[in-house]
Amino acid sequence: MICLKSERELETMDRANALVHRVLRAVEEAAGPGISTGELDKLAEEMIRADGGIPAFKGYRGFPATLCTSVNDVIVHGIPKSKHRLRSGDLVSVDCGVLLDGFYGDAAVTFGVGTVNPEAQRLMEVTRKCLDDAVAAVKPEGRLGDVGAAVQVRAEEAGFGVVREFVGHGIGRALHEEPQVPNYGKPGHGQRLKPGLVIAIEPMITGGSWRVSIDDDGWTARTEDGRLAAHFECSVAVTAGGRRVLGLEESIHA
Ligand code: MG
Ligand code: MG
Questions:
Q1: What's residue 250's pLDDT?
Q2: Within 10 Å of residue 32's Cβ, how many Cβ atoms?
Q3: Distance between CA 150 and CA 169 in Å, rounded?
Q4: What is the C-alpha to C-alpha distance for residues 100 and 236, in angstroms, rounded to an integer?
Q5: How far is the CA of 57 from the centre of ligand 1 (A)?
Q6: What are the residues whose beta carbons fall under 8 Å from the beta carbon of 231, sequence distance 6 or more?
Q7: Ligand lying closest to the C-alpha of residue 167
Q8: Which of 7, 32, 37, 42 is deepest in the core (most CB within 10 A)?
Q9: Phi/psi class of residue 83: alpha, beta or left (left: φ > 0; alpha: ψ in -120 to 50)?
Q10: Cα 108 to averaged position of ligand 1 atoms, centre (Å)
């Protein structure tokens, strides 16, 4: 079932997502050579609870942490660890979800620690552009396929892989609502985008093959070929006039 949100519900979701983006900015600022992903996780949990939120991932199907910290060849769902210290040159994807006043926020960023190699830099920049293109494709009476196609075209033109195993999703009173939001598709196809729909768009792009392998911990999703991966995510509301990226001041109004 698709749940369309009222203006008032969107305001709450905006606040939930603003908290997520504040946490992501703080984590990126704190990240540097020598800090552990476990320490970043602690920082995130403290910030969320201080603002009256609840970490959305902790306990979700048994996931043990507030953040997903996915380093280098890990695409998504990396588990923060006190022993995992970041090193200069690491490519780090951080995903954060928050429950605030009954609604979820969900967003992710990828950044480099110190200086990353040019290929990592290009992968990060292209993945960011995939998200920007996908957001720009969100229009009332547009289609879900427009969103997926925007990601796919940008990534594949750059010679990168588009992960198929994981997709974006509707979001609201549940972390994962309908519809699924794949990072591939055909323009003009798929579900129609109605005002009030909120979707978390999250391109997961790889430096090589899009094939995934899961570690024995049951969570950590890596590229099968060991190449780097990047992940950006934001939650976007379809509005009567266009779209609104939730939790960001620079909301895009078409
Ligand atoms: Mg997420
Ligand atoms: Mg998500």
A1: 56
A2: 12
A3: 16
A4: 17
A5: 9
A6: 70, 75, 76, 93, 95, 108, 110, 127, 202, 203, 204, 205
A7: 2
A8: 37
A9: alpha
A10: 6
Distance 222 CA to ligand 2 centre (A): 17
Q: With 0.85 as the threshold, say if the pTM is over it.
A: yes
Identify the structural domains of the chain with CATH numbers, from first to last: 7-253 (3.90.230.10)
Write down the pLDDT at residue 249: 72
Q: What is the pLDDT of residues 211-239, one digit of tens each?
A: 999 999 999 999 999 999 999 999 999 99
